[in-house]
Amino acid sequence: MSAHQAEFPIAAMARVLGVSVSGYYAWRSRPASAHATSDAALLRRIRTIHAASHGTYGAPRVHAELQAEGTAVARKRMARLMRGAGLRGVSRRRFPTTTQREPSHRPANDLVGRDFRAAGPTRLWVADITYVPTAAGFLFLAVVLDVWSRRIVGWAMATDLRTRLVLDALDMAVTTRKPADVVHHSDQGSQYTSVAFGLRCKEAGVRPSTGSVGDAVLDIGARFAIPREGGLEGGQAPFGQMLGQLVLIEEIGGGGTASAPVEMHGASRRIAAR
Q1: pLDDT per position as a tens digit, 120-134
Q2: Domains of the chain listed by start with CATH number
Q3: What is the spatial distance between Cα 83 and Cα 67, in angstroms, rounded to a whole number?
Q4: Distance (Å, rounded) from C-alpha 79 to C-alpha 89?
Q5: pTM for the complete prediction?
Q6: Whole-angstrom Cα distance, residue 238 to residue 247?
Q7: CB atoms within 10 A of CB 171
Q8: How does strand 262-265 pair with strand 268-271?
Q9: Distance, CA of 123 to CA of 38 (rounded, Å)
């Protein structure tokens, strides 16, 4: 009402909003509560710290500055005030893009049509590339997952996104499972639409399949409830994260029985010994 009193009469706005005129004026003359006064003082200090950082500090760093000054404040309260004031930090971290289409490549037809069900093992494989942040940089992980068993049948790691990465993962799957007529479904990343990958599929008797544009293989993560096996909790984790966990479990324990649980904490993955 205060913001629009130059446009509309107070009485008219009070009538429309179902409040009394006397109640509105009583609210205006009422002093601010102790909590509101404290919030206003804290926000002024937050603005000063944020401005001193040239607008780069987010809630964690501003909170650390306040703690260093001896100001005890809950981080959630401080984040709420920053969010309400439109203050945010700047992240310098850049994450790699694992799916890059190559316009000159001709992708394979979609043989799956988002029907991620299989009548038995080695009928339908889904593949994707994800990354694992490390202290030395990003490590790229290509995986092949059997939809029927929900097990990793092939995987490979590299420090780059060349086609060799997905070829190695496919070779492992072909060597271990010896497929006769399996569909290999992936996104339209340049690695999966390359000539070399198509030729390798033809040699191995694998039928390549790619999803439509915007229909990433990552979406199927919500369709799988991974069984609680080897310390991995069942749920609907993003497919890339889920595959990263499964590969680590397979590698550590051999065949899905983990000897150590895998903890996923955002940018870090830690193997905590039991």
Answers
A1: 999 999 998 888 877
A2: 10-85 (no CATH), 124-271 (3.30.420)
A3: 19
A4: 11
A5: 0.50
A6: 14
A7: 16
A8: antiparallel
A9: 63
